[in-house]
């Protein structure tokens, strides 16, 4: 991935970057010449987070960069620099205010990302020199994040169900994993009716892709990702504004694919199953209609209250299939509800879990790796909000209250009692450019869940 070139092992003397803040600016100034201090004053540099000032030596050559940081946000500290500083190689000076060096380097790499499939890079990013150990630790995370961004940023014409399946096959080939898929009517033949029902109206056949890897005697881990490659809303058609960015509705699948890659690259001692239901929710004469009743793989009947609540439909058959394998843990990712964004905004994925210890471990890992999430409750009294008078339950209901919770409660019905399950309702998108977070597709919760899986299974 291109971002990996922005972190390099330190081979020569790069230009030092001194991270400072308003408290330490005075001590930073003491290390400078009189001319450099005058230049700081001329530029009114006050160490505001995100600001920087280039300093030349007596010969006019770039000698040092002062950058203002918030030391409590190491991930963002250097993240704006790779696309702002003159092209060259830099290193973090030892005189900098205390920062988590690994997080700062990760932020630099994430800030260097550019999506270049359809246009040339606007410029070459600058390089941060790091030690070999840091580079080795960060490279997989940068690759995985770039993969999520690339998949989500790609328009649907080039990222339809088959393209998403091809991404899984490419991953399987790289790690010598087994890949299987069910396409079109094969879904009906092998009892995946809700996946077929959602995707049948598209000119591109719906499919379920399964990747398996690892030793049979290791604990079973199932990863599931919502792969709705475009969501019109179906017959409950979205508005033009609501439909504009629905290429990103396969963001959950992108996360699950990238996480599976991290698990296999780290050689975690698990028997991994990755499941990607890949569909387009389209409009045609055979489209799923409101009021229909669909029998799911688990034998539970679902009334279609809203065809735009399709994500939980493609996931429920996948979760039921995953549960049949009796895994030690199921984790799913989905760009599932606008209600989660109303509750938590764009930056915080909503985390649901039926096991308190696993939920707390995931949240703690998110804090440790600067990839925060927020837990919402599986408040079971709200199940009545998706009651149906003709089926076991519906995929939606008349109330607009607690939409993220009722969606999670819907999916929980397909998880057997006592089987650990974690669900992330994630946005997978940046609405605008911020340090380390360029506009477009984004990995949210990926590093947190990977850290949790490492802690859970490395100890075994």
From TrEMBL:
Gene3D superfamilies: Leucine Aminopeptidase, subunit E, domain 1 (3.40.220.10), Zn peptidases (3.40.630.10). Residues 306-313 form the Cytosol aminopeptidase domain. Belongs to the peptidase M17 family. Transmembrane segments: none annotated. InterPro entries: Leucine_aapep/pepB, Macro_dom-like, Peptidase_M17_C, Peptidase_M17_N_1. This is Leucyl aminopeptidase family protein. It comes from the Bacteria. One of its GO terms (molecular function) is aminopeptidase activity. It comes from Dyella mobilis. Keywords: Aminopeptidase, Hydrolase, Manganese, Protease.
């Amino acid at each position: 991935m291109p971002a990996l070139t922005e972190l390099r092992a330190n081979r020569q003397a790069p230009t030092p970057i001194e991270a400072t803040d308003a408290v330490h600016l005075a001590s930073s100034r003491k290390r400078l010449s009189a001319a450099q201090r005058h230049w700081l004053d001329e530029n009114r540099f006050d160490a505001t987070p995100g600001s920087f000032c280039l300093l030349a030596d007596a010969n006019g050559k770039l000698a040092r960069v002062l950058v203002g940081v918030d030391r409590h946000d190491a991930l963002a500290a250097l993240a704006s620099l790779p696309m702002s500083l003159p092209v060259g190689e830099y290193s973090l000076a030892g005189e900098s205010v205390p920062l988590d060096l690994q997080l700062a380097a990760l932020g630099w790499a994430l800030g260097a990302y550019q999506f270049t499939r359809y246009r040339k890079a606007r410029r070459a990013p600058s390089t941060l020199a790091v030690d070999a150990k840091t580079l080795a630790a960060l490279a997989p995370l940068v690759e995985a994040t770039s993969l999520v961004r690339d998949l989500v940023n790609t328009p649907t014409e080039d990222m339809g169900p088959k393209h998403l399946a091809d991404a899984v096959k490419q991953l399987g080939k790289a790690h010598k994993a087994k890949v299987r898929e069910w396409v079109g009517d094969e879904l009906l033949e092998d009892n995946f009716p809700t996946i077929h029902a959602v995707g049948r109206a598209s000119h591109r056949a719906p499919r379920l892709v399964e990747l398996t890897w690892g030793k049979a005697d290791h604990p079973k881990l199932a990863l599931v990702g919502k792969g709705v490659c475009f969501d019109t809303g179906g017959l409950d058609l979205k508005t033009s504004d609501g439909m504009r960015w629905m290429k990103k509705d396969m963001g959950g699948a992108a996360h699950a694919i990238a996480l599976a890659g991290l698990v296999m690259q780290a050689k975690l001692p698990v028997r991994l199953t990755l499941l990607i239901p890949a569909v387009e929710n389209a409009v045609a004469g055979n489209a799923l209609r409101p009021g229909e009743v669909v029998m799911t793989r688990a034998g539970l009947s679902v009334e279609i209250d809203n065809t735009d609540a399709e994500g939980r439909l493609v996931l429920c058959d996948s979760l039921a299939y995953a549960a049949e394998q009796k895994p030690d843990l199921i984790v799913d990712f989905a760009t599932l509800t606008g209600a989660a964004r109303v509750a938590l905004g764009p930056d915080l994925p909503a985390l649901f879990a039926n096991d308190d210890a696993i939920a707390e471990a995931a949240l703690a890992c998110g804090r440790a790796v600067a990839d925060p999430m927020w837990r919402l409750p599986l408040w079971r009294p709200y199940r009545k909000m998706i009651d149906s008078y003709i089926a076991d339950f519906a995929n939606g209901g008349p109330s607009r209250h607690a939409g993220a919770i009722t969606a999670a409660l819907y999916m929980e019905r397909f998880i057997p009692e006592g089987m650990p399950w974690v669900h992330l309702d994630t946005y997978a998108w940046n609405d605008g450019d911020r340090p380390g977070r360029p506009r477009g597709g984004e990995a949210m919760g990926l590093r947190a869940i990977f850290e949790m899986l490492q802690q859970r299974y490395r100890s075994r």
